[in-house]
Design a protein that fits this description.
Length: 132
């Protein structure tokens, strides 16, 4: 009986080791297959949109002259102005709709919940504009 228990224990350990090796080999195989079939395994890191960084990156990578830098800056300023003019009315309408919805939400809350609701909104801060 003791031999049977020992054999079962060894069998369990063997099954676990085979399972673990299978997972490891599968992961490595998937990684290698993905690198071969799809090319790069990791996408290149994106350039973060920090004011002024776009011009700096373009200047470095494209070897922009000072005149080209000024032209790029002028084009970006022009684009910002056009986008502000385009989205300004939409932003105002979005804000009106958001405030209307908050009022409807507050209407179903108790006075205590309304205080908490207002605190949560303050903690969340203003919503980010997603289109510019």
């Amino acid at each position: 009986m003791e031999a049977t228990t020992k054999a079962r224990k060894e069998a369990r350990i063997l099954v676990f080791v085979v399972f673990l090796l299978g997972m490891l080999l599968g992961g490595v195989g998937n990684h290698l297959w993905g690198a071969r079939v799809w090319g790069e395994t990791q996408p290149a890191p994106a350039i973060k949109r920090v004011p002024g960084q776009f011009i700096a990156v373009m200047t470095q990578r494209l070897q922009l002259t000072p005149d080209q830098q000024k032209q790029f800056e002028s084009m970006l300023d022009d684009t910002k102005t056009k986008l502000a003019n385009l989205y300004g009315p939409v932003d105002q309408e979005r804000d009106r709709i958001r405030m209307e919805n908050r009022g409807r939400m507050r209407a179903v809350l108790t006075p205590e919940q309304q205080v908490q609701f207002d605190e949560v909104l303050k903690e969340l801060g203003p919503p980010a504009n997603t289109h510019h």
